[in-house]
Amino acid sequence: MDIWTAIGFYAIIFYGALLDIPQDVIEAARIDGCRAIPLFRRVLAPLLRPMIVTCVIFSFTGTVKMFESSLALTGGGPSGATKSLSMYMYDTAFTFSRTGYGSVIALIIFLICVFGSGIIRKFDKPVD
């Protein structure tokens, strides 16, 4: 659900990236006989790749840190079925007063976000 709530943010990022693409590149591809699908696949997608990677990283880190929606909608669900790692950290630190253990869980969440973003960036190939 958190991905859907951020769709407007991602749309603005893509809109800004589309406005940043030079029109003469698109016109040159059209003059060379490029139709709509090959134009997107061979011209626009490589130029939009940095924004795609940015949105994937934002989406990944937002999903890992998901807290508010599951707390507001289900409160952890029946028997903790929808409890995320962030909710577990919150419960550990503030409900059970184990702040040291909660801090370690927060550090693990941070490391998951950093390493996950690094893996996503590793698969990002530079545009020629």
Automatic annotation (TrEMBL):
Family: Belongs to the binding-protein-dependent transport system permease family.
SUPFAM superfamilies reported for this sequence: MetI-like
UniProt GO BP: transmembrane transport
Pfam families: BPD_transp_1 (PF00528)
Name of this chain's protein: Sugar ABC transporter permease
Entry membrane topology: Multi-pass membrane protein
Transmembrane segments: 6-26, 47-67, 100-120
Xref: InterPro entries: ABC_transporter_permease (IPR051393), MetI-like (IPR000515), MetI-like_sf (IPR035906)
Keywords attached to this entry: Cell membrane, Membrane, Transmembrane, Transmembrane helix, Transport
CDD domains per the UniProt record, alphabetical: TM_PBP2
Subcellular location: Cell membrane
Start and end residues of each ABC transmembrane type-1 domain: 1-120
One Gene Ontology cellular component annotation held by this UniProt entry: plasma membrane
Organism in which the protein naturally occurs: Candidatus Limivivens intestinipullorum
